């Protein structure tokens, strides 16, 4: 019964918060309307979410998000320095193939999105068999180190979250 009324509780909370942010106030009116939207949208879209991934360790998702935010901020500064102060011929862009241990499409999507959100890297393609990602790095003097960093920093954590 509860699953039918509240099929995606995190989506409900997120939609409520986003609605309040759009309205630029956390007053009773926007909160109530955001809650109504947050309850209706997941119910109407539940048919397109038949196979929700089990999140085994939700607290690790919070830690993952904090790491991603930290990396986004740090890499913004790094890329700004590279663009402003490096000579163009000193940058070493590289195409990097990342073999995936992840199997769930949702986890692979989060990994690809994380790579793309992090300045200086871009997920370009997912192999048809879903076993490798093609990533472009703006400056990768050692492409193997970038690959290993992505696997250790992001993919390992996603494997723990979506066990």
From TrEMBL:
Top-level taxonomic group: Bacteria
Protein's UniProt keywords contain Metal-binding: no
Spans traversing the lipid bilayer: 6-24, 31-49, 61-86
Keywords: Cell membrane, Membrane, Transmembrane, Transmembrane helix
GO terms for MF: monoatomic cation transmembrane transporter activity
Pfam family, one: MNHE
Entry GO CC: plasma membrane
InterPro entries on file: Cation_antiport_E
Subcellular localization, as worded in the UniProt entry: Cell membrane
Membrane topology note: Multi-pass membrane protein
Main location as per UniProt: membrane
Family the UniProt entry places it in: Belongs to the CPA3 antiporters (TC 2.A.63) subunit E family.
Listed name of the protein: Multisubunit potassium/proton antiporter, PhaE subunit
Species of origin: Loktanella fryxellensis
